[in-house]
Amino acid sequence: MALADLHGAGGCLHLDRPLPPCDQLGTFRKAWAAACKEAKLPGKLVHDLRRTAVRNLVRANVNEQVAMWLTGHKTRRVFDRYNITTEADLSEAVEKLGKRGSGA
């Protein structure tokens, strides 16, 4: 399957159309909760997975414009909100800097 098939006319993987009627939304929520329970990930949100995808793409050194396209982010500001910096990220950056030596 090509990426274009996954994206459809909207050009992104997330919903780019109005939400379904409440009865359909309730059905989705129940199905999502059941899937999370079966995967032993209770309480996960769809956006938790989107955030994980952003972090994994950035840490895999995927070009950020490509990552934004894949995750459906149209603005840098929102993309940056999903790309959360952790203490581990900061520690890794300091370690990499230390390996480069003073070089000044």
Shape: elongated
Share of residues in helices? 55-70%
Q: Which band does the percent of strand residues land in?
A: under 5%
Distance between the termini: 50 Å
Number of strands: 0
Largest sheet: none
Mean pLDDT level: 80
Number of helices: 6
Quick tags:
104 residues, mainly alpha, disordered N terminus
Can you give a write-up of this model?
This protein has a domain at 44-104. It is mainly alpha-helical. The N and C termini lie far apart (50 Å). The chain has helices at 3-7, 22-38, 46-59, 64-71, 76-82, 87-99.
Task: Summarize this structure briefly.
The longest helix is centred in the first third of the chain and has 17 residues, at 22-38. This protein has six helices and no strands. Helix 3 runs antiparallel to helix 4.
Write the layout of secondary structure elements.
Layout: H1 3-7, H2 22-38, H3 46-59, H4 64-71, H5 76-82, H6 87-99
